[in-house]
What we know:
Blueprint: E1 9-12, E2 15-18, H1 19-30, H2 35-42, H3 46-56, H4 68-72, H5 77-82, H6 87-95
Antiparallel strand pairs: 1-2
Helix pairs in contact: 1-2, 2-3
Amino acid sequence: MCIDPKQIKLSNGGLSMTKEQISIIVDMYRDGRNYTKIAKSIGTSVYTVKRWVRLNRDEYELKRRRAVNEKTNAISLAAELTTTWNLKLSKTYLRKAWGQKA
Length: 102
């Protein structure tokens, strides 16, 4: 009996993926494609792709993606423009050491 290597299912983190699907996920993720495009290309849900990436990040050396505001702790300009709170002054106070006067 001959087994087609494309049909071999690998259980990774409780999710069954073919080698071909894994290859597509890894390549597209590294190219910066979003989860929706990756999921559509392999015919699965976005949740499944996100979960697979999270569970296999170390094994396939997939870097974590973060939004720019999470990396820099920046608040978007749109948020600053639409709020009535003085965000610039708030940032100044938050950067001060405890007990230090503004």
